[in-house]
Write a structure and sequence with these properties.
alpha+beta, 14-stranded mixed beta sheet, 6-stranded mixed beta sheet, 13 helices, 25 strands, about 25% helix, globular
Length: about 500
């Protein structure tokens, strides 16, 4: 297909491609950023360029697309980041893994050989006992990261490596694999040898998140060592975990949610007349998201009319089937709300309206009374989906709260079993702590009228009891003792209201 360059053509091509490939992935700069099985997007013409926003529960990016074409089944986009004059490449791929199983196996086998050569150079006198990428799902090990042991007398070093052919999220999450592998080795070799050290190898130039996570593990529990490896040259470098990592992260200005609701009062009241249970959620100073049990079905924006006066505009539906609300389309909106209210709370638990956005649904229930998670929390001051930018992208903290004595609380929610919940929460905790120490929260308007405690934030992880991954408590045991955490297990019927089944805290 030939290249298209007008904003309208690009938006139509993006919407059509994703509509035909609903589980496509987004790759930028060689890194997989999103999977549309869980991510969302909109592509709209704006000022002669196509504005493309893609977001998920964990991340959000905004780009201006200047051209697009489909080549070899892949949608290739030329995009501009804000503040950067030169475009970069983005690909939206119909299949998450474009390499065949045999190619992947060969790639990982080659990495395993390269890793062994590097390890033998770094640890002279130590013997590589075994290396494997075989899956062991019983113990939560997939067939991606290489695992192994180094032996020297009675001493052992647990070894984990992740090759440059893996996605960035896989590299980042190798920390969880490494912690569990260390724990597994200790458990199975307890009577034979002592496993005191974990050595983790990651690709050169892609170690920042891994370095952050490892630096906040308990240094009394193990010696943590991190190496960056250039597979082409075989050169490796040990990275510093002893000093505080200075994150390139920034906080956005907090907008006044009450004023935003007042500004959109006309749209809010009109939607509420059609859907009394609507959740009107300000997502910025100029956007209101209308949701039913966390699932967005419409949003309102302020846009200039032909006389450049700001007017409210309500759009409902999901791309590419989006409609502006007016007299002609109101029957469509009423029908959508009727189906949504029927299916979102109905008995058909396989219906998409019931299954979509479970974390947002859980968040909407938790926000009604945050003290159910921890009685110390102040229910009057709570921020949802707080963006903490790193470079051009951002992490989104589910909930940011404060205790009655002024201590910040980072709250991460999962409605389904997630192996990476503890380390993701650790990322957000570290970002919040850094912004707290800089004084950013008060400078940018968060928690007005409150004096924030200088104590480190508390980390609260919450999930349905039967969906707390078995490895979660193991990983939490290895967190730094300076990090106060709490794991809250909820009743599986959380959609009807929050009830805590049990909780665990740092001892």
């Amino acid at each position: 297909m030939s290249e298209v360059t007008t904003a309208e053509e690009i938006a139509a091509l993006v919407s059509g491609y994703i509509s035909e490939n609903p589980v496509a992935i987004v790759v930028e700069d060689g890194k997989q950023l999103f999977d549309f099985s869980t991510a969302h997007y909109f592509a709209v013409p704006e000022r002669g360029r196509c504005l493309l926003q893609i977001w998920s529960e964990e991340n959000n990016i905004v780009r201006r697309a200047v051209s697009a074409e489909i080549r070899n089944g892949i949608l290739k986009l030329s995009v501009l980041r804000f503040g950067q004059p030169k475009p970069s490449r983005m690909e939206i791929c119909a299949k998450a893994e474009r390499r065949s199983p045999s190619a992947l196996k060969a790639l990982r086998a080659a990495y395993q050989r390269s890793l062994q050569r590097t390890v033998e150079q770094i640890f002279p006198g130590w013997t590589v006992d075994r290396l494997t990428t075989a899956a062991d799902l019983e113990h939560s090990f997939g067939a991606v990261c290489t695992r192994g042991l180094l032996r020297h007398g009675q001493e052992r070093i647990a070894l984990v490596g992740c090759g440059e052919g893996e996605s960035q999220s896989t590299v980042d999450n190798s920390v969880a694999v490494a912690v569990l592998w260390l724990d597994y080795c200790r458990e199975h070799l307890a009577t034979k040898s002592h496993v005191s050290t974990l050595a983790l190898f990651v690709p050169e130039g892609r170690a920042q998140t891994v370095q952050l996570r490892l630096s906040h593990l308990n240094r009394e529990a193990a010696q943590w060592r991190l190496f960056s490896l250039d597979e082409h040259t075989g050169q490796s470098e040990e990275l510093d975990l002893a000093t505080e990592l200075n994150l390139s992260t920034r906080l956005v200005q907090c907008f006044n949610r009450e004023r935003t609701l007042e500004r959109f009062d006309s749209s809010v009241q009109s939607i509420r007349a059609l859907c009394p249970q609507v959740e009107a959620v300000p997502t910025s100073g100029s956007v209101i998201s209308f949701r039913f049990h966390g699932l967005e079905f419409a949003h309102a924006t302020l846009e200039p009319d032909r006389h450049f006066r700001p007017v409210e505009r309500v759009v409902f539906g999901a791309p590419p089937a989006e409609y502006e609300w007016n007299k002609d389309t109101e029957p469509l909106l009423s029908k959508l709300i009727e189906r949504l209210t029927l299916k979102r709370t109905g008995r058909d638990h396989n219906h998409p309206f019931y299954r979509l956005q479970p974390e947002r649904w859980l968040q909407s229930v938790v926000e009604r009374d945050i003290t159910q998670l921890d009685s110390r929390l102040d229910s009057t001051q709570l921020y949802s989906q707080v963006p903490a930018f790193a470079a051009s992208d951002r992490a989104v903290i589910d909930l940011l709260g404060i205790t009655r004595d002024g201590r910040l609380a980072v709250i991460e929610l999962k409605a389904a079993e997630d192996f990476h919940l503890p380390v993701q929460g650790l990322d957000y905790w570290a970002r919040v702590r850094q912004h707290l120490r800089r004084g950013d929260f008060q400078r940018f308007g968060y928690f007005p009228g409150r004096i924030l405690s200088e104590r480190d934030p508390v980390l609260i992880l919450a999930a349905p009891a039967l969906h707390v991954h078995p490895s979660t408590t193991t990983m939490l045991r290895y967190f730094s003792p300076e990090l106060e955490w709490k794991l809250v297990a909820l009743d599986e019927r959380w959609r009807d209201g929050i009830r805590v089944i049990f909780n665990k805290q740092k001892e």
